[in-house]
Amino acid sequence: MKIKTIAGVCFALAFSCLLLMLLENYFKYIPRFYLIIGLFGFGFTGFTLNLLNVSESPHRVSYSIIYWISMLLILIGLLFRLMHWPFATNLLLIGCGALGFSLLMPKKRSKETKSDDDLIDNF
What we know:
This protein is an all-alpha fold. It has helices at 3-22, 32-52, 61-83, 88-104.
């Protein structure tokens, strides 16, 4: 299985944990503590796997890293906003600013030129 597929499954499981947390009045079968652990565990695993898979992405490495860090800041800012903790607005603004900056960056990798130093690759 590819790393990207595993990361996608982790994000889907994290999203389902989040939905079950938001619908806790209807689904009281799973304790809230386990849903929180599942949300952060699966989310962190998916985020880490996506950062490890940056080299296989068709986008530039700098674009991918800035994009994922800005998304992480936005998600942490939303968590802070939901919990009514301080600095939620600052995290959201920094994350949105970094996301806007990453979307203005060139996304595609430049074509790698093949050097003629290695004669074995030419055969």
